[in-house]
Amino acid sequence: MHATLPLLQQTDFPPLRRNRLETLQVNLGYRCNQACLHCHVNAGPTRRESMNAENIALVLDFMRTAGVRVLDLTGGAPELNPHFRRLVTAARELGVQVVDRCNLTILEEPGQEDLAEFLATQQVEVIASLPCYLQENVDRQRGTGVYAASLRGLRRLNALGYGRADSGLLLHLMYNPSGPMLPPAQHALEGDYRRELRARAGVEFNRLYVLANMPIQRFGSTLVSRGEFRDYMALLRGAHRAENLAGVMCRSLLSIDWQGQVYDCDFNQMLGVGLGGRRRHLRELIGAALEGTAIAVADHCYGCTAGQGASCGGALNPPA
After folding, report:
1. CA–CA separation, 70 vs 90, rounded Å?
2. pLDDT tens, position by position, 50-95
3. What is d(CA 143, CA 89) in angstroms, rounded to the nearest whole number?
4. Mean of the pLDDT values across residues 277-297?
């Protein structure tokens, strides 16, 4: 795999500083039941990295002391971590909103037969990755049969109340482009998804989020192999909008890897660029003041400010 960090370090991206911390995004490990081309984590079935019980306890301690409002769980497939359910339950007991970034097919994996019911019982917000509403596009990007399994997962969540009005169970979908291009306008695409998924499968959801592909890890390496890396970076830089800087996720979020190391965002985590450019462990940050400190930036940050902007919560400034 081609390393992309050396291609990104020389940057003129504007400096950023932290606001008040609201979200703790925790990567519970790189093991996944899928291996997608666009994956910036390089996750897959053969990965074995997984957060241990000691670091799970540390995450809970940090949330208690830092007043974190949202626990955003990601991976790989975060549900494959053996401590996933204990962490979710303990966080909900603290009154913390929990988000599960779910690939939908995990609901059919052995040992996960009651996962959907667990998520509903704990009132976990589900952000489900579905890169297209067309079968051929999803299966090409994620593997044969993934589209059908994803729709089965969505219908199962709908049956529990997810995505239904007034249920309190939030189900959002996440779209990313299939190649080196900016995502389309979020609002218009959401309308297409809603119409097509209703017609094709009777599926309902709350919101659609669009996310730009980051030129790192598996996707970045593919761009280098195809000779498309420079062109994609030129696209991102050329579409930069300064007004998106106020809303980028790194200003109110900390990203934690499976070993407890801390980063400004999930993308910096995958590049190995520590918090503010320094290697630090979560245990060092309990009681620490973070607001106003510098955020480590590089050229890939243009992926979050290009066009309508992109973050883990979707477009920053979507067109009306």
Report:
1. 13
2. 999 999 999 999 999 999 999 999 988 999 999 999 999 999 999 9
3. 32
4. 96
Does the structure show a pLDDT above 60 at 306? yes
- The b-or-e profile of 213-246 (16+ CB within 10 A means b, else e) is bbbbbbbbbbbbeeeebeebbebbbebbeeebbe
Distances (CA, A) of 206 to 50, 106, 161, 164, 303: 31, 20, 11, 8, 25
Residues 143-166 pLDDT 10s: 788 899 999 999 999 999 999 988
Sketch out the chain's domains with CATH numbers. Answer: 17-214+243-296 (3.20.20.70)
Task: Answer whether residue 38 shows pLDDT above 60.
Answer: no
30 exposed, middle or buried (CB, 10 Å; 0-12, 13-18, 19+)? Answer: buried
CB 237 within 8 A of CB 302: yes
Using CB atoms within 10 A of its CB, is residue 172 exposed (0-12), middle (13-18) or buried (19+)? buried
Write out the two tokens for 6.
């050396």
Q: pLDDT band at residue 42, thresholds of 50, 70 and 90?
A: low
Model pLDDT for residues 109-123, shown as the tens digit of each residue = 999 999 999 999 999
Distances in Å between the Cα of 168 and the Cα atoms of 110, 126, 171 are 28, 12, 10
The Cβ of residue 93 has, within 10 Å, a number of other Cβ atoms equal to: 10
Coil, helix or strand for 235? helix
Contact 296, 275 (CB under 8 A): yes
Q: Which two tokens stand for residue 17?
A: 């500083």
